[in-house]
Amino acid sequence: GVSSAGTVTASTTDGDHPNLGTSGIIASKSANRYYTLSPSGLTFSSCAATFTFLPSDVDAGANPANFYVQRYNAPSWSGGARGDTTATSVQVLGQTALGDFAVGEVITHTITAAADSNGSITPTGAVAVPDRTPRTFTITPDAGYSIAKVTVDGDSVGTDSTYTFSNVTGDHTISVTFGVRTYFVNIAVNGNGTVERSFQGP
Prior knowledge:
By secondary structure, the protein is mainly β. The chain has strands at residues 2-4, 7-14, 25-40, 43-44, 47-52, 68-73, 76-78, 82-86, 89-95, 100-106, 108-115, 119-122, 125-130, 135-141, 145-152, 155-156, 162-165, 172-180.
């Protein structure tokens, strides 16, 4: 939302962005224009933006249905989740800053996801992720099991039931192991006597 009111000046420039080569956008499959959004006095936490282009802007062989938006704040690019698309527009979500924007098809990266036999991770296998976009994985243990460890690129990241890769710019791995769910029983003796455990579980 907006925390301080202000204005935004918008403009477009014909041709590819001068730094398009580092954006993750495939230069031969883009819209040949870029956009500049310049705020004045405006403070906000997050916004969505829709960018329109002419059919004549689109490179031959490019498919606008596969377009994504990348934002340039020198010296780096960032992306965001994609919203609605049409033959002449594409929306980007979750923008926390403004700057220059370019649109087009992007390169993809692979996140390889796997779980052991006592639960599942969704999606699973080799998952293609567009450049500089987020991807969330959901982890579900089977009945009687709990998440023992989530490992991302060889490092343990805890036991949460979801994990999100944000602004993906390379290949990754995520794997999950599950363990038998354990419970604790508190026993109190009232009066004379003892309690013994007959089942030697874990």
